[in-house]
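Forwarding these from the shared drive since the link keeps breaking.
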Amino acid sequence: MKLVLVGLNHRTAPVEVRERLAFPEDRLPDALSALRQEFGCEEALILSTCNRVEVIAHPEDGCLRTDRLIQFLYDFHHLQPPCLEPYLYSLSERETVRHVFRVASSLDSMVVGEPQILGQLKRAYTLASGAGSSGLLLNSLMHRAFHVAKRVRTETKISNSAVSVSYVAVELARKILGDLSNRTILIVGAGKMSELAAKHLIKSGISNVFVTNRTPAKAEEMAARFHGVALPFENLLSHFALADIAIVSTAAEGYVLRRPDMQRVVRERRHRPLFLIDISVPRNIDPAINDVEEVFLYDIDDMQSVIQANLEERRKEAESAEAIIAEEVEAYARRAATRNAGSLISALRGRLEEICLSELEKNRNGFSAEEYARAQKMLRTTAHRLAHPIILQLKNPDGNLNRYQHEVDFIKKVFDLEEEE
C-alpha cells in the first residue's frame, strides 16, 4: 500500500499546539505542492480541522520513512525541532488505512458519531484532487473510507442520539410535542447558548419566534436574526401563554418564574403542553414547576444527563462500528495484496519472457519463419512455467503476497522488476 500518515489530534495535543499547526485552506495548494516537489511525496492529502492536523502521503520512492513528513510540518509552519515531538503520531501501511477509516466514521472524534468530520475529510480530498496531489492510492483509500463511513452510519446507531444541548433540546421537544411544524418558541434572554438551542429548534420547523430581554435592543437584534418579534420584558409572564417551547437563559440571580405563576399560565393556555428549557446558572425557573400538569421542565443538569445517556449509547454502538472497520481494513488489505500479486506475476513473467526471447533473437537466422514462431510460443510457455513456482512459494494460503514481503522485494531486486501501478 505504501501509505504513511503523520499528525496530531485533540487527544495528543492541546489547542495551543494544534492551532500552530493548522493549515488555512488558501495555503493548502502550496503545502501540497511542497510535499510533492520538496519532500518526495508522489501523492499527498492534508486534513486540517480544529481537532486534528494529519498528513497522509504515498512516498515517491516507496520508502516508508515518516521523518520527511515531520520535517515538512516544521518547515511549513516555521517551527524548530523538537517542539512537536511529544504530540505527533506516525502510522504506515495497514495502520494508516485503519486510522483513516476510523476518522471518516467519526470513531476518532472528540464527540463520537458527530457528522462534521466526514464532510471535512471530503473537502480535504477535493482540495488534494484539485491540486493534483491525489492519485491511484489516495483515490482508492478515500473512496473506500467514504464507503466505510456510510456503512457505519447505516448499520449502527452511532449518530442517532443527540450529544449537545442544542440537539437534545430538539430531541426532547419532539418527544413532548410531536411534530414541531407551526409551533411557537419564546426565547427569554439573549445569550449564546439560548440562541444556539433556538436555532436548531427553528431549523426543525418552528414557525413563530418571540424574544424578550431586559435590554430591548438585544431582544430586537436576536428577533431580527430569527425573523421573529421582540416582546417587552416587563410582561414576561403573559408571554409564556403564547409559546409551546420556552428557552430561558438570563443573568438573573433568582427565579424569574415560580410555581404559582406557571399555574396561572397553564390555565390561560387551556392546559396545552409547555416545554421549558432552563439553561441558566443559577437557575431561572423554580424546579417545583415540574409538578404542574402539562408542563415539562428541563434544566442544564437534566440536559447533561440526557447527553451522558446518549454518549453511553454511542459508545455501545461504537463497538459494532469497530467490527465493521476491522472487516473493511482486512478487505482493503486483501485487495491491495491481490493487486500486488497480479502486478508482480505479470512483471516476472514479462522479464523471464524477455530473457528467453532475447536469446532466441540472437539466433534468429538459424530458424525458418515457422520454426521461429513455434520457438517463440514454446519459450513464452517456459517463462510462465518458470515464474509459476516462484510466485506459488511466496503466496499465502489465500493467494496474497503479504507474508513474505522481504522475499518479494528480493525477487524484484534480482530481476530488476518494476510493477505496473
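-- next protein --
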Amino acid sequence: MRLSRRTLLATPALGLLPRAASAAGPLKVAFVYVSPIGDAGWTFQHELGRRAVDAALGDAVKTSFVENVEEGADAERVIRKLATDGNDLIFTTSFGYMNPTLKVAQQFPKLKFEHATGYKRAANLATYSARFYEGRFATGVLAGRMTKSAIMGYVAAFPIPEVLQGINAFTLGARSVNPKVQVKVVWTSSWFDPGKERAAADTLIAGGADILTHHTDSTAVAQAGEEKGVFTIAYNSDQSKYGPKTCLTAVTHNWNDYYIGRVKAVMAGTWTSGDVWGGFKQGMTKLAPYNAAVPEAVRKEVDGQIAVLAAGTAKPFQGPVNDQAGKVKIPAGHALSDKDIADMKWFVEGVQGKI
C-alpha cells in the first residue's frame, strides 16, 4: 500500500479566527482517502474540497492528506497518527473508516472528527453524506430514454445501503419512462480496482447491456464504454475525457462548501456533532454536462426531474414500488423516510442481482 502526505498553503485569509486562536497558529486539518487521488473519482472530489479549504482560508489553515488507505486496521493506525500529530479536525472519507474513526475519536475527545457516509456519531464525531440516489434517479430517466436493448449494467462495490440506494433509484428512474428496463448488477468487492471494474463492465456488455453505470472509484467503466461504443453514466466526478463519445453525463459530488463551512465552524468555536445529508437542493449532488449524444428533449426532461427533486415535490422512493420478488414494498401514496432509505437492504423490481 502506498501512503503519501502533502501540505498546501494558499493566500492569507483575514478576520476568520478569534485573536487567541490565531495566535496559536493555523488550524490543522487532515483528510484520509481510500484510493489514490488521480484526476477523477470519489477521492478526487474530496481532494477538490480540501483544496477549496486552502483557497478560501489561506494561512489560517494547514491541511494535509493521506491517500490510498485501506479500510480496517490500517485506517485506525493512520487516523490515530493524524490525531497524535496535532490535527484539530480530521475528515475520514470512506464507509469502512466508520469504526476506526469512532474508536480514535473516543481516545481523543478534544479533537474534532467527521466521517463520510457513516452513521455512528459522538460528541466530537459528526457524519455527512450526499443524497447520491437523487442523481441516480435522474440519470435513470436519461438511461431509460437512451437505451435500445432495455438492458443496463451496474458495476458496484459493496452491497451496503448507500450503494443499494443508487442501484434502486437508477432502476426506478429508468423504469419510470421505460417499464421494460432490466438492470444487471456485478459486484467487485472493492471501491477501487480498475481491473475488476473493467472485467465487470466487459461481462455486462457481453450480457447485452447498452448503457453502463457504476458505484466504484476508477474510470475503468467509462473507458470500457468508450472502447466498445457503449454509453456510460459516470459516478463521483465528470469523466467525459475518458468517454468523449459515449459518457452521457455523471452523477457528481461537491464537498467544497461543506468542508469550508465545517472548518470555519471549528475556527469560530461553533462546531457541533450531527449528520448532514444534502442533495440537489444543497448542491452536494449535481450532474456533469450532457454529452452531445443526448437529445435536447431528453436533456429538458432530466433537467425537469432534477428541479422537482430539488424542490422536494417528487421523491425517488415513492410508491407504488415493488421489491425484486414482485411484492409491494412501498404502497401507493407513501414514500420512504430518511431512516428507511438509510437502512435499505433490498432490491426493487427490475434489478437482476443478489445482495
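The CA atoms of residues 134 and 316 lie 7 Å apart. Confidence is low (pLDDT under 50) at residues 1-23.

- D.
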